[in-house]
Amino acid sequence: MRKLNQDGILNPLLIPLILVALVMVGACVTSFMYFSKYADQRDNVNQKISAAVETAQVEQKTKLDTVYAEKDKIPYKTYTTPSVYGSIKLTFPKTYSSFINDTGSNLDFYAHPNYVPSKGVNYALRMSISDKVFASEMKSYESAVKKGDLKATSITVVGVTGTRLDGLLKKDQTGIIAVFPLRDKVLKVWTENLDYRADFEQTLKTLTFSP
Length: 211
Known about the structure:
Elements: H1 14-72, E1 77-80, E2 89-92, E3 96-102, E4 107-113, E5 125-130, H2 134-139, H3 142-147, E6 150-157, E7 160-170, E8 173-182, E9 185-191, H4 197-206
Antiparallel strand pairs: 1-2, 3-4, 4-5, 5-9, 6-7, 7-8, 8-9
């Protein structure tokens, strides 16, 4: 109910008093909010600092582990095939172990970090030399290329042009394979696991053989 003076006019002091009251209420609310934030910072600052330090330490350790892991790969190992296979030189990190199966007419090479599992793994590095015709070998990839599972591009090593295929090599195996004609044989070098892509790209850069 409005308060009127004896002449029936609204008291002119009432509006300023209402405004002052509203300002005071707003100031109290604002002060409470800032105090709450201050109290949270005051009471939890040590925990927050510890959490921030711990996060920074974990990130730093991850970075250092990555740097050390890359340094451990150097110098690269080199495997050279017998001359009957074109004296292929294949380089790979010294942290890899390798296994070679040479039948005299075909050769299979396996390499993987630390040790070479006998099965159940997508290998970091593979190489094979087989008695196949290059055109026939490439024909076996045509369907996957047409479907878009594999992307085909040309690749040249020591003047020999082959084909590079990126994508789904087979079920549950995504990688990169390079296929070259090699005399009366076919040379294939590939990785079955893109986690080792950087190592494989380095292997391709240093790959050499005698055509």
